[in-house]
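Changelog excerpt

This revision adds worked examples to the README so contributors can see how folded entries look when concatenated. The first example is reproduced verbatim below.
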Amino acid sequence: MEYHHPPVIIPTTPNNVLAHQAQDWKIMQVINNKIRDDIVKKYAQYTKRVNGEMIKVMYEWFERGDRRSRQQSSYGSQRDKHFRLEINKDTFDRYNDRLPHVRRLTFEQFCELLAPIITGQYNDYQLRKTFEKLDSDSDGYLNQQEIENLLLVVGRAESNYKVYDMISQLSSRGKLNFEEFKRFINDGFARELLMPSYDNEYGSR
């Protein structure tokens, strides 16, 4: 099957809408949160299936910052935030034994498990379920190795130091309990680790 790359969220104006999805990709969910005229957050999930089986999923996140604050800032430019993560079933099948509780899930169930981490929209029940699946030794914490294993399963690679540094900013014990895991998501650490960033500078516009 010919591979068609899915659309991207183009950060130009707050009134942007998602481009029409390319052939073979199906858009599953869109969140378009217009906080005010100059602050917009967009999230989208696309899937690709062959013979009914999901083989790829792509998440996109775009956040336009507060441009009005730029006029009061001494900084010369601001940056929009644009993240993208594409996960392949082949990669999931190859490495899911690194996360024993995840190994029992289908690829589609695993992708559903990731959604609260990426979107930051969840209730405690949903997030607790995700936390427990990632907690391989069931000790009530996510340690550095468990987070690095998650990165491996989704096909991402980050330095050990970067993962360690992010954990250290939230916990002095070197591992995250459930409440610290919430901060890990809400403060954007999880998205930064999981989703490559495409920064878009607009300070000169």
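The second example, added in the same revision:
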Amino acid sequence: GGNGGGGREEAGTGWGGMSKGDGAAKQANTLPMAQRRTLKLTGLPPQVHIGSLAKHFSPFGTVVNVQIKADHESGKVHKGTGKPFNLSYVQFASHTAAKACLASPTPILNNRFISAVWANINLDEAAAQQPSPPNSPKRPGAAAKAAAAPAVSGLSKAASLIQQSLDGARQLYDRAMEAGVLSDERREKMEANILSLEEKLESQVKMDEAEKVAAAQAPAGAEAAG
């Protein structure tokens, strides 16, 4: 199997969904092979995180940048979670390291459904080509909302228990993936479990926040009344 050999490259659009007519994409498509240091991965399950990718690729050489985003182009949905698969761009410090990674017969994260090809452009060059966004108007309440977001240490007892379960599930998953002992069915079940715990934690934190706000808005002395 392997990761697709050294020849294949990203088809169609350039970085960030630019059409081939864009100057940036034209430049990207003519990037000499010897200057390419970035791989494009597709078929990533939704819960794969940057840390596990960086850890997998570091034996091939220094990893300088990893980006993950939802792959809406493929239209494929992860069976276990119903969410779209992700794609990722991984940039190495050298062309040699990226080439060694592509040539490796070991499946990425021991998942034979994840494939890798040469990206048309390196991440640092893509970032330099992106126009800087205009100053967006500040949304009312955004700062207050950010200030109200609880620190992990400030989680309620219920949220802390969910967080512990989530940490345990992630560690178990990472260890099993490294050992390569998971069947596709078991892997999908573990991925679905991690995502459901993440959603559970998020909704618990929101509930805790709503309770705090309600308590803060209650008239003083209301608790003592009655």
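Reviewer comment on example two: The first strand starts at residue 38 and ends at 44. Residues 157-215 form one domain.
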